[in-house]
Amino acid sequence: MARGSVIWRCRKHGNKTGGSCDCPGGAYSIAFVVGGRRKWEKVGRTKKEAEHRLAEILTELNQGTYQPPQPMLVRDFAQRWLRDYAEGAVKPMTLRSYRGLVRNHLTPMLGELWLTQLSPQRIQGVIAQCLRERGLSPKTANNCLILLKTILKFARQWGFLRDNPAEEIKPLRVESKEMDFLRPEEIQLLLKHADEPYRTLFLAATLTGMRRGELLALQWGDIDWHNRVIHVRRSLFWHSQQELAELQSAPAEGPVHGWRFSTPKSKRSIRTIIMSPRLREVKAYFSCKQVAASNT
What we know:
Blueprint: E1 4-10, E2 14-16, E3 27-34, E4 37-44, H1 47-63, H2 74-89, H3 92-110, H4 120-133, H5 138-157, H6 184-193, H7 198-208, H8 212-216, E5 223-224, E6 229-232, E7 235-238, H9 241-248, E8 259-262, E9 271-274, H10 277-280, H11 283-294
Helix pairs in contact: 2-3, 3-5, 6-7
């Protein structure tokens, strides 16, 4: 009969068979024996979760179905995480950002290492090296670190790692930059020299604060001229052929293409915006366009 134990572990207080502490890096781990060798697995902050995980492993050991995690390269696990989790959990634009960070930074930096070869010192050193030699900005380095922490969290949850080596690495200090925006006189100048339909698009962006994808996804049914409101219900984004191929696990061929509708960025982004009097004036322009289209 296989046996195991639940133990609280942290770097400051070591192993504790009872109770816990307030250390941020502390967590419950489980210990069990496989083939005469003691194995450890970090679980989480709650004892109940650790007990549940230990019961699962002991059942597998007693039934002879336990399979130890197979070694995996960082680049292979990152692709697995994108496919098995990110594709179905995040917005298309967020997925595009994740794919770019994995392809352009995480894979060149750490891709050929085994997950078990990662350590806080190694990750910190690689980030510092990229700042010096690859010209990575602190903001991009922080984005890579945040994504790496998330990917390694899933590697721990899925049994490929005992601990998350990036968990306690602090982000780099980023100098805040003052936002640059068009002044009222610059907006007037832009609208004066813009032709339709871009003038209306720029005017709507200025007077509503809608995101680019939300503006491009507007349909006639989203505009209520009687109640003078705009309903934001969807967003439009551009899928490249490479992204479509990655989603379909097929080689990329041909030119980039692929407009796709998606839900807005968050639940709060689905909203109703009151049209200002100036924005309502464009109704005459669109009414003329509809009449012209119906007469052709």
